[in-house]
Amino acid sequence: MCVHGECVDQYQDYACQCRPGYEGKYCQYNITATNCSVNNGGCEHDCTESEDGRSRICSCVTGYRLENNNRKCVPKGSSACGQLLISRSEYAAPQDGPMPWVLGGE
């Protein structure tokens, strides 16, 4: 199942631990971006760099989950047309400057 990695057994599930240079749910993708400052590291929502700067991890805002490519975010549930699945109650104070992420709108 894990193309370029090792399968890690989890309770009623599994995960792939990728070899260096690969990513994705099945370690099937070459890592193409490791720096979040370049095109947000290829992440659709949030990008976090490792301390050594040699890798990055994509994550999604509340209400979304990562697709198998570990870059694109998809809604966990359905929403009304034109509405985003994000709780504004998480932000009690107004945000100064640009928001920390950009949501895709295809």
From TrEMBL:
<dbReference type="InterPro" id="IPR000152">
    <property type="entry name" value="EGF-type_Asp/Asn_hydroxyl_site"/>
</dbReference>
<keyword id="KW-0094">Blood coagulation</keyword>
<keyword id="KW-0720">Serine protease</keyword>
<dbReference type="GO" id="GO:0006508">
    <property type="term" value="P:proteolysis"/>
</dbReference>
<keyword id="KW-1015">Disulfide bond</keyword>
<dbReference type="GO" id="GO:0005615">
    <property type="term" value="C:extracellular space"/>
</dbReference>
<dbReference type="InterPro" id="IPR000742">
    <property type="entry name" value="EGF"/>
</dbReference>
<feature type="domain" description="EGF-like">
    <location>
        <begin position="1"/>
        <end position="28"/>
    </location>
</feature>
<feature type="disulfide bond">
    <location>
        <begin position="18"/>
        <end position="27"/>
    </location>
</feature>
<dbReference type="GO" id="GO:0007596">
    <property type="term" value="P:blood coagulation"/>
</dbReference>
<dbReference type="InterPro" id="IPR050442">
    <property type="entry name" value="Peptidase_S1_coag_factors"/>
</dbReference>
<dbReference type="Pfam" id="PF14670">
    <property type="entry name" value="FXa_inhibition"/>
</dbReference>
<keyword id="KW-0645">Protease</keyword>
<keyword id="KW-0356">Hemostasis</keyword>
<dbReference type="GO" id="GO:0008236">
    <property type="term" value="F:serine-type peptidase activity"/>
</dbReference>
<keyword id="KW-0378">Hydrolase</keyword>
<protein>
    <submittedName>
        <fullName>Protein C (Inactivator of coagulation factors Va and VIIIa)</fullName>
    </submittedName>
</protein>
<keyword id="KW-0245">EGF-like domain</keyword>
